[in-house]
Write a structure and sequence with these properties.
Beta-lactamase-related domain-containing protein; single chain; mainly alpha; 6 helices; Beta-lactamase; two-stranded antiparallel ribbon
Length: 168
């Protein structure tokens, strides 16, 4: 965000929401980070959930999540959504380009704190599954926890226990 001069309070750069007549056009990157996008989502493991469909059926997870309808005004309701995380992962890929995108988490985060065996999986479109499908040693996960403990809370979303994409 800092390196690219990206404003998280402007409408998120999501192709499916380009039309200003689309109510999803008002969803900001901050809304996605704080899980207040207002997009329809079922974060359950029942057979009809959007979560399971996205993770195990859809090839382009970010596109699937971005294609869902709006059910709440952006910024009005906190609801954890793996779909928001996939939209964010796709935005980062679009902003950085593939070469920088694939090296970014390793160069800027994992290798800097010694997470040398950490692996991030991608969906069929090549986008990191930013919500899950991370693999690493116990030592890597302990180092990951160091990151989690350094993230500041964001305005009390999630009962005050949730920051930008991290439970606190």
């Amino acid at each position: 965000v800092q390196e690219k001069g990206f404003n998280i309070d402007e409408p998120a750069p999501v192709p499916e929401w380009n039309s200003t007549s689309d109510p999803r056009h008002n969803i900001t990157t901050r809304n996605l980070l704080q899980h207040t996008s207002g997009l329809y989502w079922t974060e359950t493991e029942d057979e009809n959930s959007t979560l399971l469909r996205m993770l195990f059926i859809e090839g382009d997870m970010g596109h699937y999540a971005a294609s869902l309808p709006l059910t709440n005004e952006p910024g009005s309701v906190w609801e954890y959504s793996t779909g928001n995380t996939m939209i964010l992962s796709r935005i980062i890929r679009q902003q950085l380009g593939d070469k920088d995108y694939y090296s970014f988490p390793y160069k800027k985060l994992f290798y800097k704190i010694g997470m040398n065996s950490f692996i991030l999986e991608v969906d069929a479109s090549g986008t990191f599954v930013g919500s899950s499908f991370f693999w690493g040693t116990a030592r890597d996960w302990a180092r990951y926890d160091w990151i989690d403990q350094t993230v500041a809370s964001s305005d009390g979303y999630g009962g005050g226990r949730y920051g930008f994409q991290f439970y606190l």
